[in-house]
Amino acid sequence: MKPFFLKYTAILFLLFAVSCKENPATESLSKSKVENAVRYAKGLEIYKYADFSIVKVSNPWPDAKKAFTYILHKKGVFVPDSLKNYTQIQVPIKSVVVTSTTHIPSLEMLGVENTLVGFPNTSYISSEKTRALIEAKKVKEVGINQNLNTEVLIDLQPEVIVGYSIDDNNKDYSNLQKSGLKVLYNGDWTEQSPLGKAEWIKFFGALYDLDDKANSEFDKVEKEYTNSVALVRTIKSFPTVFSGAIYQDQWYLPGGKSWSSLFLKDAGAKYLWDETPETGSLSLSFEAVLEKAENADFWIGPAQFTSLKEMSDANPNYKYFKAFRNKKVYSFSTKKGKTGGVLYYELAPNRPDLILKDLIKIMHPEALKDHELYFFEKLK
Known about the structure:
Elements: H1 4-16, H2 24-31, E1 44-48, E2 52-57, E3 68-73, E4 87-90, E5 96-98, H3 104-109, E6 116-119, H4 128-135, E7 140-141, E8 143-144, E9 147-148, H5 150-156, E10 160-163, H6 171-178, E11 183-185, H7 194-198, H8 201-207, H9 211-231, E12 240-242, E13 245-247, E14 250-254, H10 259-266, E15 270-271, E16 281-284, H11 286-293, E17 298-300, H12 308-314, H13 322-325, E18 329-331, H14 343-347, H15 352-363, E19 377-378
Parallel strand pairs: 3-4, 5-6, 5-10, 6-7, 10-11, 12-15, 12-17, 17-18
Antiparallel strand pairs: 1-2, 2-3, 8-9, 13-14, 14-16, 18-19
Helix pairs in contact: 1-2, 8-9, 9-15
């Protein structure tokens, strides 16, 4: 498939060939060569022109059949007629409602968290900065995702609602758009690569006309991540690792091509299910996991458990795993915000460098002697 901007340039040339001499802005756009500002994310494209940006979200949910294109423009600038059928947003925006905790860190990294006016189920938010805004009544509760309170949102009148959806059944968002509100889909959660998720800060950078700031923040994360990967390239020992836990008689653990498993590979570990093709989770029996992982060196991410006792109380058979007996079980579920939200679920997509450093510290402590675990904690 040809990049969107090439298709757009060709169409623009055909439609405006006669009038381009009378419109220098159109003539300049049709001749310009603008590269996608996104390098790792597969579901996001950003093409930045002098006074506006074309933002394309091509994978807002798994197996999406359509893409969404948004035109972000500065006040009073010319936008070609061929782009006016797309959602138009004047930037920088001054107020926003976001619908996933993974959006919160991007706002804070850009220094625009004060523009947040609403969020569904605010108890999930862990960040101290944003929790302070909630407690000061500056961020309103707007229901729960997939069942938003349309009356509250219409009353708030945010300039933009940044939504996410698991499929194309989005009645709430459709109703909000019919009421005149502007909804932009964010697909950060569908990305599989660690840096691909983190790069969605550029989506918010475009909304706030803070592209340089977003690029700078991402570049720092990218540098820390790639430098950490380089640390383990010379290591020849690869400890074996498994993950997950039993839930309703099924053991759920990451697929071999999932976001979580890629961290383990980059951290110099041998994930025992790394050859499976799934990008989501696997569902296995206890016996199947025990057969393969009984003698694994580490157990990373045992679901919601926060202590070894809690694990053994839930299932005494966990004792058959060597990692459990050797107390080499590490969880991110212990680090929570004031109202119980798990920090990992909120911040980890934006800070893959911290996840990677944690995992390297756990499995290769000699490589990162000065690093203190940020998300993970050894269970006692």
